[in-house]
Amino acid sequence: METDKLIASLLLQIKAIKLSPASPFTWASGWKSPIYCDNRKTLSYPLVRKTIRDEFVIRIRDEYPDAQLIAGVATGAIAHGILVAEAMGLPFIYVRPEAKGHGLGNQIEGDYTVGMKTVIIEDLISTGGSSLAAFKALKIAGLDIQGMLAIFTYGFRISEDNFKAAGCPIDTLSNYGSLLALAIQTGEILPEYENILKQWREEPDRWGRT
């Protein structure tokens, strides 16, 4: 099975991704959504987290063979980043959303050397805001960012534009399109909901509002 379909299948099986077009979720941003993704659940399933780790490692070795450092985005990708770094024998750091207001005031935790070739691990890409904030913090710290890898992306146009504008290469193990196709094929989602789910991705900030 292709990687995007395999990961989508696993996320659906453990209900890390829930589809509910008839009774939408409300995100912290206030957006209404027919889908909710919680990739933290993958850590509770040894086979799933191992598969994700292995696929990340394969992707890094193929696309970023010179990587010297793995960076996880707090908090969702810290554990996944550690698993990847351990498997590859590489050092690991993680990036907070903002610098601490006490102690050393760090935003980046862990040891690194300026110029190290770094791959960022993220769990989920929505608009890309928090992911790119981590990318910028690492750039300011003087690290050579090779690219960012994430488990899943909703594939919003705004996200693609934001990553392009920031100059941050982004790749994901799975995506909304693959998930939707698999959910319809397996009967997880009824065919009559297909258009609703496609429309949501086109205008997520306006979808479901009256």
Can you put this structure into words, describing what you see?
The protein is of the alpha/beta class. It has a single domain (3-202), classed as Rossmann fold, CATH 3.40.50. It is built from seven helices and ten strands. The chain has helices at residues 3-13, 46-63, 78-88, 129-140, 157-166, 176-186, 194-202; strands at 17-19, 25-26, 32-33, 35-37, 69-73, 92-95, 108-109, 117-125, 144-153, 170-175. The strands form three sheets. Strands 7-6-5-8-9-10 form a six-stranded mixed sheet, sandwiched between helices. A hairpin with a 5-residue loop joins strand 2 and strand 3. The longest helix has 18 residues, at 46-63. It starts with a helix and ends in an 8-residue tail after the last helix. The relative contact order is 0.17.
What's a quick, concise take on this entry?
Strand 2 and strand 3 form a beta hairpin. This protein is 39% helix and 22% strand. The radius of gyration is 17 Å and the shape is globular.
Number of separate helices = 7
> Residue-averaged pLDDT, rounded?
92
CATH architecture: 3-Layer(aba) Sandwich
Question: How far apart, in Å, are the first and last alpha carbons?
Answer: 41 Å
Radius of gyration: 17 Å
> What order do the strands of the largest sheet run in, or round the barrel if closed?
7-6-5-8-9-10
* CATH class annotation: Alpha Beta
Uncertain residue ranges:
none
Q: Provide the β-strand percentage band.
A: 15-25%
Total strands: the figure is: 10
Q: What gross morphology would you assign?
A: globular
Structural class: alpha/beta
CATH fold-type name: Rossmann fold
Order of helices and strands: HEEEEHEHEEEHEHEHH
State the helicity in percent bands.
25-40%
